[in-house]
Amino acid sequence: MTIGQRPRWRYIYDDLRTAIERDELPPGSRVPAEMSLAEQYGYARNTVRTALNALQADGLITAGAGSLGRTVRRRYQIFFDAADFERGVYHDNPARAQDQWKADVERQGWTPRQIIRVDWLPAPRDVAEWLDVPPGELLARRRRVRLVSRPPSDPEMPLMLADTWTPEDIARRVLTDDQGQEYCPLLEERDVVVRGGIIRAIGINQVEFEDMIVPRMPSPDEVELLDLQPGSPVGQHARIGIDDTGRRVRALVSTWAGDRQVLRYRLPVPSPEE
Q1: Same-domain pairing of 227 and 171
Q2: In which domain, by residue range, is 136 found?
Q3: N or C end of the chain: which has fewer CB within 10 A?
Q4: Helix crossing, 45-57 with 34-41: angle to 10°?
């Protein structure tokens, strides 16, 4: 191949990608079969397969299953309004166990659900750095697997993992429920909704947040939990809460499927000083 020439598979790849981007092959539609494409282009099936595998790796088409063949993947824009969660602009409802995230996706027409699990785990290196604790220190991780559905067109699918990491003394702080029973909200494996958020309710005055946002490829655990197709990236948003003494009290690490969710910020612009 001389410099400047494209390999044969790229002609097929470029044509199909253009058709997908122009909506000539809309989400959910069948991708032409290998044999059909081989006849259309006059190339070997191995060449066609290389093009289809590249489209799959780019997250544009599915891997296919048996006689179903490959289809154009659906892409969603479910917004995660990251600024509202910490500016005090809460839309939660304790009576319905509806937190800010649930309220947010419901406004977008989705039905939300969370699966919650709490584990005591050695601090991973990045979390230890964010919380300024020694690597391996035992921390509480409250994991919420967040799922959404929109019947009848969209069956339930996982959208995000939201992991709250806290040191033990913070995780064991208590609240009192309406029946006068004490409980540790950060250790509850159920939806716990208190007005203004758990961290504020347990007496911690966060005065600063540090956000770090990175796109990356998922771990095997994340592929399984988020039911990701091959080639799907994830986004990671880590928010570290700092209290009025300067202590790093909480790391909230949200990991979402890159083809389903959009991180959005809406921030007020201060008036210029006169």
Answers
A1: yes
A2: 78-264
A3: C
A4: 120
Same domain, 22 and 87: no
How many Cβ atoms sit within 10 Å of the Cβ of residue 274?
A: 3
Cut 0.70: pTM above it: yes
Are 24 and 160 found together in one domain? no
Mean pLDDT of the chain: 89
Task: State the burial class of residue 209 (Cβ atoms within 10 Å of its Cβ: 0-12, 13-18, 19+).
Answer: middle
CATH of the domain at 21: 1.10.10.10
All residues at 6 or more sequence positions from 209 whose CB lies less than 8 Å from its CB, including other chains: 86, 239, 240, 241, 242
